[in-house]
């Protein structure tokens, strides 16, 4: 009897380990910052010269605009990065779609709603109502007709939100505000979630779009036979034909798009749902199971602009806010992270390199001087970045940034869920970790000079206030002068 119980216990323990391992492999759930989820890029890439990028082409839709950065550019190909900037006009509806790669979206401007449809997760937003006088009984008496709607969570987003887009998950966006939504999307093409060619692909669930005068893409229903599609979906041939419609990919909704949504208060975060809706759906399904707790119930967006979330704050220099898998768990699936930086006038970011990720830097506001050095000690980028420009900084390349007189705001997308940086100066830095004598002998300076170098920024972490009051001016090819 004891042997049987032990055997049963061992069996269930093995099943538990197997399930945990399978979930980890399926969703990439790992807290090891050294573990890579990448297939690797083009081995012949050298990154001898970096360039700031702006969108190369744009595609207009009925209610919006999509701008594409040059995916054929060596920097994008070698790092496996694909980026677009999208504008959705008021009452604009970005039709449902999914991608072959994981991605992150940052909302530069505007607010609205989004929905992501996760397979196997319950439709926790439910509503039933009755409409009277619509049907007649045999005796001619008016009877009620029941209507029902249920769907997965709908999420409110606003300016400053970072939204996770896992590969293969259908999503949509709707602008219910008075101002256009402007968003930057960054996708990690080299992630193992992409089993296709190392190129971004977008699959439309509805509508279509024209990428150029010669090329257009239709939605996934367009390739099926209408009769077979109608039979598979249990609908009429007419509706099946409508599924193959030729709408744009961003359309204008004449009336407000209606769906079940929580009523948010100004004091609460958008992800906080009122008591009753989520709890009612919980009891409907008899409590949460393991899949829902680990996957279905993930928070999909976090506001990275919120000053209270800042990880580093210097009242004379600025703030740094980081999102990783510890603070935003769905990043375990997406295997990306994000950092938002707000620098005050003439503030400096401590020289650093990204240990385990490439960095995609997008300028939001102001101007910043950036210098990047490669493994040969050569300067591969030395220029001013302006709003709307994007710069890819390869893994381990050393970068130095200094805000200009108008300050700067930018966001960085990293190709690792737990990206790590190594600061050269300040608290918790390389110089701070080295003994004075090691520094002195490494650079041929005196111990006094080494001590001054080691402790000159000892009270600051990550972001530094300007040390010198004088301004140094550099001239650009176009004749413009900026302070550095």
From TrEMBL:
Domain Cupin type-1: from-to ranges: 50-241, 302-451
MF-aspect GO terms: nutrient reservoir activity
Keywords (A to Z) from UniProt: Disulfide bond, Seed storage protein, Signal, Storage protein
SUPFAM superfamilies (alphabetical): RmlC-like cupins (SSF51182)
Coiled coil start-end: none
Keyword Signal: yes
Span of the signal peptide: 1-24
Superkingdom, natural source: Eukaryota
Disulfide bond in keyword set: yes
InterPro entries (UniProt xref): 11S_seedstore_pln, Cupin_1, RmlC-like_jellyroll, RmlC_Cupin_sf, Seed_Storage-Functional
GO terms of biological process kind: seed development
Family recorded in the similarity comment: Belongs to the 11S seed storage protein (globulins) family.
The protein's assembly and partners: Hexamer; each subunit is composed of an acidic and a basic chain derived from a single precursor and linked by a disulfide bond.
Protein name: Cupin type-1 domain-containing protein
Upper taxonomic lineage: Eukaryota, Viridiplantae, Streptophyta, Embryophyta, Tracheophyta
